Amino acid sequence: MNRNLIGIAIAAVGFVIGLAFLGSAIKNRNKADNTISVTGLGSNKFTSDLIAWSGNFSRNSFELKSAYDELANDKKVIENYLISKGIAKDQMVFSAVDIQKQINYGTDANGRSTQTFAGYQLSQKVSIDSKDVAKVENLSRNITEIINLGIEFTSSPPNYFYTKLGSVKQQMIADATKDAKQRAEKIAENSGAKLGNLKKATMGVTQITAPNSTEEYSYGGTFNTSSKDKEASITIKLEYEVN
């Protein structure tokens, strides 16, 4: 009899404990479900204040020294031309000279492969970083003036940057957070509930594209450098408790 009573008592205690755990699980589950997750957007349009442009020039000759001397003379001509266009000498960066031996490949009358020395090609690059965007932009578009000086010159498209991007990001984060909170408050209001404490905030990556473009956003963030005018955006995901 005593053993039966003890067994019943243990079973009863176990039942009560089980109910307690079940009640706690249901309560926590309901609490977890009473949340709102919203995503806010912050965006900003701005114009680049830094331009980076470069061009390449080269010379070909069977004599290495001759090619080098001609390239050195071209460098002086280019340097003087850029100075005449208002570019400071300390803004110009000339790369080291690249030397390539040119080989012509073919076959002889017997079908055997042949290699013929075709001379040396020496090339060099000049780069300019400037906050005078309009001046360098205009320079990159009128590069035929250098070609008319008898120099084999190839211009690269300029790249545009913004040096105050940090402050733009801070403002976008603030705008995205405000937008997300307003969305959450509206959802709670329309549901007859009240917005509770913020549980979690997740920030997305910054996307920088040309305005009104068809550029696609990327998982790691897009950073357009080909357009002088830019549009940046960022998302903030907020999760709130709902009372």
Automatic annotation (TrEMBL):
<protein>
    <submittedName>
        <fullName>SIMPL domain-containing protein</fullName>
    </submittedName>
</protein>
<keyword id="KW-0472">Membrane</keyword>
<dbReference type="Pfam" id="PF04402">
    <property type="entry name" value="SIMPL"/>
</dbReference>
<keyword id="KW-0812">Transmembrane</keyword>
<dbReference type="InterPro" id="IPR052022">
    <property type="entry name" value="26kDa_periplasmic_antigen"/>
</dbReference>
<keyword id="KW-1133">Transmembrane helix</keyword>
<dbReference type="InterPro" id="IPR016907">
    <property type="entry name" value="UCP029033"/>
</dbReference>
<feature type="transmembrane region" description="Helical">
    <location>
        <begin position="6"/>
        <end position="26"/>
    </location>
</feature>
<dbReference type="InterPro" id="IPR007497">
    <property type="entry name" value="SIMPL/DUF541"/>
</dbReference>
